[in-house]
Amino acid sequence: MKAIVIEQYGGKDQLIEKQVDTPEPEAGQVLVEMKATSINPIDWKVREGYLKEMLDFDFPIILGWDAAGVIKEVGQDVDQFKVGERVFARPATTRLGTYAEYAVIDEEQLARIPENIPFEEAAAVPLAGMTAWQCLVDFAQIKEGDWVLIHAGSGGVGHYAIQLAKQMGAYVATTASGKNQAWVEELGVDRFINYKQEDFSEVLSEIDIVLDTLGGENQEKSFSILKEGGRLASIVQPPDEEKAKQHGVKAGFVWLEPNGERLSKLAEMMEEGQLTSVIGNRYKLSEEGIRKAHEASESHHAKGKIVISME
């Protein structure tokens, strides 16, 4: 099968097209014919070698950890899914990822794609959508009436988080650049903050929940706007525990734990039109396409999600 692989750590030029063996599903796994995948920061962080101590993979490595496609084969003991079903997933983090024509995925990671949702839109959701859910629902225990600040609401995790928070009945503020204001507000934002013109820490206070997608100074300043008992969830870096104690808030670093049941909940929201994928960049499964996709992700200014189509 065709795959885009890396054979050593480095820049975008390490992404090369190769023919590799099609994987075979083991017990509890299915083989998915890939129709689309999407790009996330973990992809280029692994490529650069930033995560090699955490993820000690042998080369060659197929990057990519979002999948949408059709089941072609099922392994032993698979009883919830069958050949021919349209599925999506955030597969386990192995060296055999989704920049390929086929991918093996554990049954417990899978969810069915609603009939009214195209493969590309489905492929955009798993990693970013479940990250937003885990931060807001599982960690922060969001409830109706909460005031929520989502940093970088025009990004992958951010734009799903806005929609989830609004569905939960929260008042939502977000930071982004002015060029993204119109479409981000269409997602339901109550207070848009153009970070180039306003300092969020000067215009917000008594916030219940902050979702930190940026880290650094933005995370530091976020403590000052949280009310006592507030929650700060970061997907970038562990928050300062001492600062959290000083401000009387709960703060933590959230690392995604993929889960097919959680993804099925997002699928229901997608089916009902309550959760939409905004795709800012589309590319093909090729050396050029994947390299351009990584470049867009590394810019930190991509609109919504970056999707790779196999077709």
Automatic annotation (TrEMBL):
Key words of the record: Oxidoreductase
Output the InterPro entries linked to this UniProt entry. Answer: ADH-like_N, ER, GroES-like_sf, NAD(P)-bd_dom_sf, Quin_OxRdtase/zeta-crystal_CS, YIM1/Zinc_Alcohol_DH_Fams
Q: Which residues form the signal peptide?
A: none
Which residue intervals define the domain Enoyl reductase (ER) in the entry? 10-308
Question: What SMART domains does the database record attribute to this sequence?
Answer: PKS_ER
Q: Name one GO molecular function term.
A: oxidoreductase activity
How is this protein named in the record?
Oxidoreductase, zinc-binding
